[in-house]
Sequence to fold (317 residues):
Amino acid sequence: MRPLPSPPVTRVGFLGPRGTFADEALHTQPDLAAGEPVAMRTVPEVITAVERGDVDLGLVPIENSIEGTITVTIDTLAFDTDLLIQREVDLPVSLHLCAKPDTELSHVRTVISHPNPLGQSRGWLSAKLPDVELVAANSTADAAQQVADAPANDRASIGTARGAELFGLVVLASEIEDHPENETRFVVVGRGVPAPTGHDKTSIVCFQREDRPGSLLAILQEFAARAINLTKLESRPTKRGLGQYCFFIDIEGHISDEIVADCLRHLLANQAEVKFLGSYPVAGAAAPERRRVATAAWRGASEWVEGLRAQIRQPES
Fold:
């Protein structure tokens, strides 16, 4: 008897190299970690690789609790691809100042990192290293690699403890982020819409058909009229000219929910051009329990409705 063929391994592109926060986020997801991680240098490169079929899924950062939206990610999703968000992953962020062994804090003249960690540790750097040069890198792991490759001991990187270990660096200072409640949200992008879980989020982009007083209010009233909760509202340039903006909106619910579908239907017909970015499970520690409760509530409501329908009399012949 021939052995059954092994299932194909899922290839997952992420903002690399190894040792980045994206790498850490990927490894919090057992199914993604069991696949084949593929490190890439930029967010657009990750998304393009999924489009070409070089990888099956892509994991990219989309928002930080301190620095806000990762604009390259939302702009690429809005304007440059038809891929959809499959899930979100929330990762608590702890930043470390890392350098070559035998480096003292007083030796550091240059600090390298991705722009977001540099911004998230601005206060600590001003207090402890006020005269250092700050240099932006493509990723925290890229910064760690640059420090590891530097001939002198006057450079340090800001990144993960895992990244420091991977590149042979030591941690000079731990948890240097200015705000301890620091989290970064990542999204997994791919094709198709995940099945509803009972605790989901839908992301869209609305483009006003004309810039007139009350146009944004008219868009928002479509959600208010249906008691749909908005969890995010942000404006971004449309890239079509100065003063022209679109609106990124996250709402509670799934496109399979009739109330959400009805809202998007009316938005498109009456108010704005709409681009659908995905319906997907909400992340967070409480999400599994909320999904369990929602599923039980839906099952109970379905049984109640079916019980009422069972009482409908058949028409007399």
Remarks:
- The chain has three domains: 9-92+184-192, 96-176, 193-299.
- Residues 9-92+184-192 form a domain with the D-Maltodextrin-Binding Protein; domain 2 fold (CATH 3.40.190.10).
